[in-house]
Request: fold
Amino acid sequence: MKRGRLLTIGSFDGVHVGHAELLKTTAQEAAKRQVKSLALTFRVPPKMVLSPVAHRNLLNTPEEKEILLKRYGINEVCFIDFDKEFAQTRPFGFFKETLLRRFGAKGIVVGADFRFGTERSAGALELVHWGEEFSVPVWVISPVRIHGQIVSSTRIRELLLAGNYRTIPSLLGHPYLIEGLVIPGRGLGRKLGFPTANLKTEPHKILPGGIFAVRGGLPRNASKPSRMWLGVCNIGSRPTVTRRREVVVEVHFLSHVGDLKGKPLVIELCRRLRSEKRFDSTKELTAAIGRDVQNAREYFRLRGAKS
Reply:
């Protein structure tokens, strides 16, 4: 590899099909120039830091974001802790000191709507102009539209918060990802005959409610998890067995996976099977879980997936 990096910059919350075009271009152009590809991003989207009324409803935790970015062939991911002081960075200073000197940019890929610097005063046009001055090529990628609408993290976030999961995978280009630490549960699933792995997730992570057919695995490395197991996941408050309003994420795998307690687990929500509901008895609940398991098996069987 030669010195320097070909980089892309953005919030990349969700890492959706629009982001994919930036990431593919970055990886391809880096390979041509025999340099590493780098995604420069933020732990929390800048809009959620700057706005006093914005809620931190995240599509991705930093860990999930890194997994997804590297799936597109990005070699390195660097997180910037965006704050109000960083927001006052002068645009040209960011270009010269951060992009050129710190990261050795040999090329820069951004979206057409990319803005940066004090009061978002600069954007793609300024980068192109400065890039020409310093002999650094800049690629400006147009937004992706589906059914006439621009795909954006804001749109995906709104759909998830409204409980509309059906269109989410097509906008993301992949199933929704949830990463968390497996923690001890109350053992209710085991008593019902369906033992579960209970996930502790990031508090600001958006968790779509319902019962899902999922794939899950241990993140051996960021770009390629270990073997993926098939399963059923419940995201909700378990109204049949508890009165608590706390949302839990619990996964029952369709095959034996061993003890996962204390380990990080990544799951992909492949298909929403139904809404969570309260049953009149644990017997009815057990029967419903059995049907969920069968529906998940049938879903994966039709797609040729094996647990």
Remarks:
- The chain has two domains: 5-150, 175-302.
- The domain at 5-150 is CATH 3.40.50.620 (Rossmann fold).
